[in-house]
Structure formats: structure tokens, C-alpha cells
Amino acid sequence: MSEGIRFVFRGEVREIDKIDPTLSVLRWLREVEGASGTKEGCAEGDCGACTVVLGELVDGSMQYRAVNACIQFMPTLHGKQLITVEDLASPDGALHPVQKAMVETSGSQCGFCTPGFVMSMFAMKVSEGRPSRDRINDVLAGNLCRCTGYGPIIEASEKMYDAGPETAFLEEEKRVVALLEGLSSDAMVETADKGRRYFAPARVDDLARVYTDNPDAVIVAGATDVGLWVTKMHKDLGTVIYLGRVKELKEMRVASGYLEIGAGVSYTDAWDEIKKHYPDFGELIRRIGSTQVRNAGTIGGNVANGSPIGDTPPALIAAGARLVLRKGEERREIDLESFFIDYGKQDRGIGEFVEMVKLPLPKAGSKFRSYKISKRFDQDISAACGAFMADIEKGQVKDIRICFGGMAGTPARAKHTEAALIGKTWDEETVKTAMAEMVKDYNPLTDMRASEAYRAKVARNLLYKFFVETSQVGEKVNTRVVGDRELAHV
Question: What is the pLDDT of residues 371-383, one digit of tens each?
Fold first, then answer.
């Protein structure tokens, strides 16, 4: 057991013996360190003004990722490097190429959002070669600007590469690597303050034990949802167990016909592998939150959270995914769709946690599509999210699975609609008959995102869209908006 947390900040190892498990990195920077460059805009991971960069040793190399400091809990920094906008300029005051490019392109006006943009750009520059315009748009989607518009900032994101490689930064990186290697340990991290406790195991067996001993604890992976419980709902979480250090939960592999995704695998890390097998699912992940959210949030957390508007469960259920649950030394495996019992209620016992999601590899010839409907194309909560998987042979529907989120208290399959399709000819008449059956499957609600009537109509129309894209009709029409730039027709 290791008491307290240790991380690299301003070029040295910081040690904190006792700290509130839910103190945000943003609050610590501003209230304890007096580092006011990192701003609070929304306090919910939406605007990007609080963006910082975390450096972490992964397989012996440094990985740099932008995250939202407003919902990142301080103890999760253990074993990592924290980089803020104050760290970028040289000791002699010379601006970093990212900052210099922002000045030269007039990318800042009031300046409130600027540090967050700079840190998102910085993470891109130290991690990637010169990006495409689409890639820049993706990286900056989680940073909102109220003054200049995005043209000059995008221009700065291109111009900053003219300065060449990050020579000075990479030289300092060698020293940081040595510091982080000194912090590496498989010991459980524990800290506490004011009656609140925090555990961060490094092995899944330790996680199973500590959760058995503390079944009332709140499990946190990326905190992209739990963080809002603290910042918006002002909940006292009591005991927190963090999954981000558990090695086994961060693993992903292909085995026995499945893509096995550990519950701690982030959206960012899962993205490339999933889109190899399910291009549409990959595009869905790209539209989940922002780069900062995808860097922190996990697919396992999205499932365990049980939200009816979670974006990954409909796609996973349509594909026939299974779930591995663990309690102590015992494991059980269930179909993912049976995990969701009712609104806010999942098939998960006391002390039991999600260990792995098993996504079946698609069979040859299977047709899969997923569609996210939201008011904003990027970084928005779905009004409805639908996914379809069909086996069609010689013009007949041999099997089909349809699942929607946002249409009921849980992600749910459209079983009446499926029954109206299976064994029938895959043509417009059959599909329109099945569309009428969907009223038996869903009784959607009306809320700020969409009305009942809108959701019902969209769901029917998405089935028709799936038909168009998987039939000869789709060869003659373009069904995708510009945002689906990586897909075209797949």
C-alpha cells in the first residue's frame, strides 16, 4: 500500500500525503498553486477552457493527452506528469511555437479560452505529425471560443508545425521519463481527507478485493460523468476506487472471435481497433464528447453507468456484445442487453464490477450501421442513437438486430420490428411494413433534446436509411453528411 500521491509538476516530483479524493485538478491549480492560466468555463468538461495535458509512460514511451481539469480528480495524477499553459514558454520568456502561432494569426481576443486551445494544440504537436484540417477540427472540437471564430485558431494549428520538432521539449522529456520510472509501482495507492477515502489499485485482483471490502464505494474510470456529480450536483462520494491504474483493465485483444475490451480502455485507445472491424462504430466513437472526454472516458464506464442515452450500448448490443462481470474471485458472463434492467438499474450485484466488454467480430457479409442524432454534430448528447446489424443472403433477411438508445429507460432492442423483417425479402415494402411495427417497441419521452413524435419518426427513418445504405438503392444516393468524412459508403 502506498499512502498519498506522487506526480511530476513543474519539472519535479510533487508528493501529497492527504488530499480530498474529489478535489479537481482545476481547483488545485487555481486555489492551491495560484496557477490561474487554467480557466473554469463550464465545470462539466464541455468548453475546454480548463484543458491541461497529462504525460504518462506507456510501454516505455511518453504519451501526451489533453484532458479537462475541471472534472479530473487530483489523486488520478499519481504516476503522471501534469503540464499547464505556464509550462510552455522557455525560461527566458520566449513563447512556445504554439503560443507564437496564436499571436501571429490573431487567434486570441478576450483570451479566456486561449490557454485551453493552446494546450489542446500542444498535445497534438508533441504527439502527431502535421495533421489534416479534419484532424485539427477533431482536436479542437472540445474547445469553445466566443470571440474570434475558429478560422485563425485553425490557421495557428497549421502554422505551429512550421517551427519544426519539439527539440527542447523532447530533451526535457528524458529527465521526466526518469522521474516517472521512479514513481512506477504496482502498490495500491491510498489517500484520504476529511473522512473521504481513495483507492487506486494497479492489479485487477487488488481491485476485486478492495471493492469487496468497500462495496459502497464509487468506481471511477474517466470521471467524465462522475465528475459532474461533484461539480454540478455537489455529491459527497465518500469512498472512491479509481480504475485508471489497473493494468488488466487497460488491455484490448482479439481472441476467440471477439474483440475483448478491458473496462478501463479509453475511447481514444479503443477507437482505431473498433473502426477496423466496425467503421460506423468508429465514427460514432469519434462523435462522443470531445478529444478531452474521449481521452479520459471509457467504454466500460459508458456501459456500467447505465444511462439510456449512452452512445456505445446500442452499437454493442446490435453487434451482440457480451459483458464479463467480476465479484471477488468469481466471474460471470452475460449478454450485454440483459445487463440493463430498468432506468438506473443494472444487473450488477453488490461488490461486482464490469471487467470486460466482448465485442464479436463481424461475420463476412454482415451489414452494420450506427447513427447518432443530436442537435450539434460534434460533442453533443444524443436525442436518439440507433444501431443495426443484419445478415442478408440472396435478398432475404436471415437475421437482424436493431437497438436504440434515447427511446426508452434503457438501451433496448426493437424486437417486434426485427420479427417483421426476419425471413422476409429485403425490399422497400418489407422495410416500410417493419417501420410501422416500431410503435410496439418504443414509447419515447419528450424532453429538451427532442419530442416523443420526433424520436419515433427518426427511429423509423433510420431503419429506412439502413435499408437504403445496404441495398442497391444506396449505390445511387449519398446518405451521409460531410461530418462522416472517413466513411463514404462502407
Answer: 999 998 888 899 9
